[in-house]
Amino acid sequence: MPVTDISHDIEALTLTITAEFAAPVQRIWDIYADPRQLEKVWGPKEYPATVVDHDLTPGGHVTYYMTSPEGERHYGYWKVLSVEEPSSFSYEDGFAHEDFTPNTELPISTCVSTLRATDGGTQAVYVTSYKSREELQTVLDMGVEEGSRSAIDQIDDLVA
């Protein structure tokens, strides 16, 4: 299982996920840089993702939806803030309406993804920051820890 640690800090308003992959940094980077590969790991297995738009450059956008087992679509977006290929990227992550406009009734977070070479492959650290305790608690109650673990753990099969 790639995810080695998930922690949340209510005081710092962060959720941090650490994962280890038996693949080089560039291979893990390529998953996020390629919309077809990203679709295979962005949502949990039970909620597969479909990437509609994908521009992983500063100022770019990634739009997607995840489909529930019942066929219901859940829309989201990234607004890309920074990119340092192949070591890191940051983005605003939010829920969206069907037309991909931000759904401001749900939390919007800032995510920083960092990839670092290790002896056996790559360590990824994903830090997500929220504006308030209530927003962090909302996504925790929605199952973000379990969903993220399920999604990230799919990367092993993709790089095998």
Automatic annotation (TrEMBL):
<dbReference type="InterPro" id="IPR023393">
    <property type="entry name" value="START-like_dom_sf"/>
</dbReference>
<dbReference type="InterPro" id="IPR013538">
    <property type="entry name" value="ASHA1/2-like_C"/>
</dbReference>
<comment type="similarity">
    <text>Belongs to the AHA1 family.</text>
</comment>
<protein>
    <submittedName>
        <fullName>Uncharacterized protein YndB with AHSA1/START domain</fullName>
    </submittedName>
</protein>
<feature type="domain" description="Activator of Hsp90 ATPase homologue 1/2-like C-terminal">
    <location>
        <begin position="23"/>
        <end position="159"/>
    </location>
</feature>
<dbReference type="Pfam" id="PF08327">
    <property type="entry name" value="AHSA1"/>
</dbReference>
